[in-house]
Amino acid sequence: MMSELEAKALLAKYGIPVNEGYGASSAEEAAEKARHIGFPVAVKALSSKITHKSDLGLVELNICNPGEVLDAGARILKKARGIDPDARLIVEAMADPGTEVIVGAKRDPQFGPTVLFGLGGIFVEVFKDVSLRVAPVDRPMALDMMGEIKGYPILKGVRGRKGVDLDALADVIVNTSRLMMDEEGILELDMNPVLAYEKGAIAVDARALLRD
Amino acid sequence: MIGASRDPSKWGYKVFHNIVSNGYRGRVYPVNPSAAEIDGFRCYPCVGDIPGEVDLGIVIVPASTVLKVVEECGAKKVGALCVITAGFSEVGPEGAALEQELKERAAHYGMRMLGPNTMGFVNNSISLNASIVPKMPPKGWISFISQSGALGLSLVDWAIGSSLGMNCVVSTGNKADVSEADLLEYFEGDENTWTIAMYIEGLKDGRRFMEAAKKVRKPKLAIKAGVSQAGARAAASHTGSLAGSDMVYDAAFRQCGVIRVEGVEEMFDAAMALSTQPRAKGNRVAILSNGGGAAIMASDACERRGMKVPELKKHTKAGIARLLPAFASVKNPIDTVAKSDYDLYREALKMLVEDKDIDCVMVIYAHAGFTSAAEPAKAVIDTIKEKYPKPVVACWMGGREVSAVASMFRKNKVPYYPVPERAAEALWSLIKYDEYRKEARR
């Protein structure tokens, strides 16, 4: 697996917006980076061996001052190193809340790269409300994918609730397809969640599984 | 035919017999070193002894001698091979190694190869039955590619029973060389094939299949069997766990214009409509019925599948109202209140296909005993003959009297169904075909 930092660097290379983030080897360094980014920040474990960070309590969100970064950083680092001795920390700018969607990709043994889109959070956990295409996915196809899911009205805006930037999401989908077509070493890619706003979208968590 | 046998209990006899007893007009050479003649045909000890040129070698010798036969065929410059012999990749790694060698040797001599482990093929346009199905299906425009030999064969039998016409039936076997993609390319160029039906368990090269299917402009239908999640491994990502193979097949089929159907009946119901009717340019359906209940069920069946049963144009309504008793109201679905004579059905149907707000028509007749099932059927046949650029499907509900009408419909290329749900599903496939075609082209 790629570390989150590596995965996000790869996304950025393909024009997919990610939130600002830095690696840190100690809680002190994490606090330093947090000061540089500006508060609030998120502090998470950075490891290429740990997949489900939040389930393991290795994520702390909305931290508002350096002291809390020191505490959270020390706690997370200790716990994470119990699993992966090489684990570090990642400090990221907290993104504004938005509509959570998932954009993912998988290399299918028969069809090659495929791209997946769905509403994030409980929608993907419970309803599995997702759509899929075999890459390459172009813009009209990406818009079709969004239109296909049952939760589409949520994206479009319903009952006075503003819709999200479908064009920005289409860009994320198309760029994910491009990435998968180019980077043959990537087996699976998950951006969960991507936060969609009235204007723009940003991938706040990313996971990339590499070929053995 | 290499491995032709005199023993009627052996496949080597059955296949040979099927080739020579179904009206194939080409030359047939049985090859078997220990027989002088089979079924009155002179037998040759080996391929090299055959006097003339050979286009196709059908191989049904034991697996251990297949390679030797392929060498002989290569030396004789045989055009292509159909290897019915089993005992290759389907039996394990040793068989897989043998299959690889078989594939390489055939390719070395430039011979394309169907199989191994195929149950053969039927090509109705040249009356060639190189398969183990004893009877040929009636001639038609549907060609069927089947990964399962037994299923392919049973469908031929089924087609005979339901007098559904078929052009080719090909059992792909292990697909060491010729795959669905090759066959799609072939059927695109085959003027006797109008619709391609497929039974697929797994594709070896999904991308190549998609490329081939995208180029085919004819309607394509597929059953993809094995939809369970059993193959999905515990994935590290959400995408990994969500994007199971079934979902990928769904997407891939759609992207290359293949309509996925669940089962055999649905496939042939759709194929019947797709191989006889013009494409549907939209999803607005008009329903004409001699009974209210059937009409309502048909509307439900259409709407459930995403079709619309909209209001008719004023002009159409007025025209149809003239044909009906004063108390009948003219809405869509149209209930003729038990009237089903030729003129009524003929006139009403004509007005419906001419209505610009309607894309396709379902005509229903529910048999009551005191009316003729054939009269309204003739009206449908006569209307379709006029070649309106809109699909019409027929739903004739009833028993014995209706089965006589069924064969009349088949003869006249009217897609016929015994219940409204099946007629609706067939209409839906016509609409989807048009949608998918646009998507695949984009």
TrEMBL record, chain A:
This is acetate--CoA ligase (ADP-forming). Its EC number is 6.2.1.13. GO terms for molecular function: acetate-CoA ligase (ADP-forming) activity; ATP binding; metal ion binding. PANTHER family: 3-HYDROXYPROPIONATE--COA LIGASE [ADP-FORMING], ACETATE--COA LIGASE [ADP-FORMING]. The lineage of its organism: Archaea, Methanobacteriati, Methanobacteriota, Stenosarchaea group, Methanomicrobia. Residues 8-45 form the ATP-grasp domain. It comes from Methanocella conradii (strain DSM 24694 / JCM 17849 / CGMCC 1.5162 / HZ254). It comes from the Archaea. The keyword Nucleotide-binding applies. It catalyses: acetate + ATP + CoA = acetyl-CoA + ADP + phosphate. Keywords: ATP-binding, Ligase, Nucleotide-binding. The keyword ATP-binding applies.
